[in-house]
Amino acid sequence: MNATQNLIAKDLLKIKAVFFRPDEPFTWASGIKSPVYCDNRLTLTAPEVRNDVENSLAQAIKEYYPEAEVLMGTSTAGIAHAAITAHIMGLPMGYVRSGAKDHGRQNQIEGRLEAGQKVVVVEDLISTGGSVIEVVNVLREAGAEVLGIVSIFTYGMQKGLDRLAEAQVRNVSLTNFDCIAEVAAQEGYIRPEDIERLIKFRDNPSDESWIGE
After folding, report:
1. pTM for this structure?
2. Which pLDDT value is given to residue 213?
3. Which of 155, 212, 149, 207 is nearest to 181 (CA)?
4. Above 50 in pLDDT, residue 104?
5. Residue 33: CB partners within 8 Å, gap ≥ 6?
6. Neighbours of 43 (CB within 10 A)
7. Residue 30's pLDDT is what?
8. Which pLDDT does position 29 carry in this prediction?
9. CB 81 within 8 A of CB 53
């Protein structure tokens, strides 16, 4: 765990953008029981945390994607983060809609994007990776060179890792599930013995054997 992962983990836990409840699981729309709730939109209404997040995203882009020319946010959660980070870096930004508009110019990519430009996709959260890879594909079809993705938090689920590998795209997250679980135990949000249960969920979300352990 590096300093940035630790800082962002503490920030997300503090404002309950990531909230663990292993003894009273949440139910996802798919019906899967989950010990964790995540809403990184809450970072936008917490100025100190927001500053940590956006400055860390800018630093990650400078470190891992120094050739970046344009930032593209995912719709809708990544748009604000892409805009603020682009402002910090002095770069242009835009965003990719989940589908093309049915009016006007019928754009799916909003903002100016020239073929051949080097793009970094800004996402708030990656679980199975499906939605962010759709964004990468749209940008590639438009002629962009997608350098990779930056995200605030990733679950590290195998399905997501496999999809990213198949799409040949790199993701750099500010923090991750393992790190946040460890910090949550250190800070007293959960019991140390809960970490194993949380990791069991992350490794196989459809297996509910961690419930009641």
Report:
1. 0.93
2. 67
3. 155
4. no
5. 25, 26, 27, 208, 211
6. 25
7. 76
8. 76
9. yes
